[in-house]
């Protein structure tokens, strides 16, 4: 825990002194460890990916998981995330951290686009990673500095404008188009500097186009975007111009080795703190009722621990209700084992989750039930459920239809549209386990899966729509902060971002 506190403190101090995206000078961050004035793309790539995933994973654990009823950090204190009650101080960590890593990704592009180091693949990978990071930032906060962020060092822009989310998304789409073109050339990169795909450029291209699908679906509910998104999704899925992930092996996952910088950030969490939150009833009850193999010990466990490192309670799987009212004091039951156990997410290589193949299948299932693409929604749904399991249990051999039927969650074409959405998104919820804030983003977009509402929920019992901006932005970039609030709405957790608004 001391390591995490130090890291967070350093980031906050850096943000306070350097105004985050507004005034950061990242010369030290971007200095080649060998002492050369400019780092090469292969030297910037791995540290930027590791750093970004560190911020994503810690906020997934203590923010997304609390909102989305994966865990409950039980307490009667105020400011508990699982009660939709969090302070403005939550905003700084992700905002500061992700903007700092954007500088590295931008420098990676800058160096790769210069004649001496010209490499279309590094340019494409940089643009994909920037799009990935910016999408998390804008879906968390709403309007953010985008077109002129991270330009204090090169262009002396110390107070960048907060750009409208629609404009951000449209530019991201343009950049992903460019990345697809650049990566189609297959220019080689240094595999040793690529901790996600080991230098397989074709897989980066598939990740970029799969990310494109995620983000198109994210904004497709806006009336002015629906036709554009439908057409682009259809083009990606039904032509060969935009290859997408085709197997679990092509999932974008930084697999932690435990050696040097590729050590999971969860190792920095104190063991007692990692075990402390109870697992929420919603998360564990579904897995238990389905007899899900990911929590099966006799058949798929290791050293009497299931694949996800969840501790049983009195010989069964039981959770704690989320959103309970102060004074109810429910008993903590199941929890995640810490790294003193043979199996633990603290030491799990696959927690560096960026995007997996199962998510792509569930995106296609939704597009199919909306009539936007051809193909069977049932097949996409079944493939998503299967690959969500086999990502963790590659040797799982039970026919997926048998599993789904036994669990009473098989596909049924007679269901209503909303019931089909619920079926898809309940499975997608588990596919998105450990993937930054994607469960929260998707719930805000769709209202699925249906989450039980505890009596202690704040914010009118409505899922928070955003994080507030870091408090220091009000004093370091006051004019543009006020313009953003005037356009978007009050700087509150209840203010919807652009793609949520009718």
TrEMBL record:
InterPro entries: SusD-like_2, TPR-like_helical_dom_sf. SUPFAM superfamilies: TPR-like (SSF48452). The keyword Iron-sulfur does not apply. The keyword Lipoprotein applies. Keywords: Lipoprotein. Pfam families: SusD-like_2 (PF12771). This is SusD/RagB family nutrient-binding outer membrane lipoprotein. It comes from Chitinophaga agri.
């Amino acid at each position: 825990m001391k390591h995490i506190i130090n890291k967070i403190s350093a980031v906050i101090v850096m943000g306070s002194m350097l105004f985050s995206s507004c005034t950061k000078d990242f010369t030290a961050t971007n200095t080649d460890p060998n002492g050369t004035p400019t780092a090469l793309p292969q030297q910037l790539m791995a540290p930027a990916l590791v750093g970004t995933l560190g911020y994503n994973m810690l906020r997934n654990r203590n923010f997304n998981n609390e909102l989305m009823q994966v865990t409950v950090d039980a307490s009667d204190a105020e400011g508990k995330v699982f009660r939709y009650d969090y302070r403005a101080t939550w905003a700084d960590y992700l905002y500061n951290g992700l903007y700092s890593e954007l500088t590295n990704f931008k420098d990676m592009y800058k160096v790769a686009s210069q004649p001496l180091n010209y490499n279309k693949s590094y340019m494409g990978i940089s643009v994909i990673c920037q799009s990935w990071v910016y999408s998390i930032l804008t879906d968390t906060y709403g309007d953010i500095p985008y077109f002129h962020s991270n330009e204090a060092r090169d262009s002396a822009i110390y107070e960048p404008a907060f750009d409208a989310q629609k404009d951000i998304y449209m530019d991201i789409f343009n950049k992903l188009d460019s990345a697809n073109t650049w990566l189609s050339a297959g220019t080689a990169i240094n595999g040793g500097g690529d901790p996600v795909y080991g230098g397989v450029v074709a897989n980066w291209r598939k990740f970029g186009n799969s990310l494109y699908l995620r983000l198109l679906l994210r904004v497709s509910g806006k009336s002015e975007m629906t036709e554009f998104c439908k057409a682009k999704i259809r083009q990606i899925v039904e032509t060969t111009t935009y290859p997408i992930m085709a197997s679990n092996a092509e999932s974008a996952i930084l697999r932690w080795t435990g050696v040097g910088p590729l050590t999971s950030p969860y190792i920095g969490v104190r063991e007692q703190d990692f075990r402390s939150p109870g697992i929420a009833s919603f998360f564990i009850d579904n897995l238990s009722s389905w007899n899900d193999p990911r929590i099966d010990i006799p058949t798929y466990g290791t050293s009497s621990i299931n694949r996800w490192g969840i501790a049983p309670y009195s010989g069964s799987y039981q959770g704690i209700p989320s959103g309970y009212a102060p004074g109810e004091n429910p008993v903590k039951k199941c929890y995640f084992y810490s790294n003193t156990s043979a199996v633990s997410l603290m030491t799990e290589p696959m927690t560096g989750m960026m995007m997996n193949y199962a998510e792509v299948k569930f995106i296609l299932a939704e597009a199919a039930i909306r009539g936007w693409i051809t193909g069977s929604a049932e097949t996409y749904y079944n493939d998503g459920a299967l690959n969500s399991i086999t990502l963790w249990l590659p040797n799982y051999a039970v026919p997926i239809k048998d599993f789904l039927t036994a669990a009473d969650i098989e596909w049924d074409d007679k269901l209503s549209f909303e019931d089909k959405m619920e079926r898809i998104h309940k499975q997608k919820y588990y596919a998105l386990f450990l993937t930054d804030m994607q469960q929260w983003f998707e719930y805000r977009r769709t209202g699925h899966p249906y989450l039980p509402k505890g009596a202690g929920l704040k914010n009118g019992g409505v899922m928070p729509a955003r994080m507030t901006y870091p408090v220091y932005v009000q004093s370091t970039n006051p004019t543009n902060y006020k313009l953003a609030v005037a356009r978007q709405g009050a700087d509150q957790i209840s203010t919807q971002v652009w793609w949520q608004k009718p």
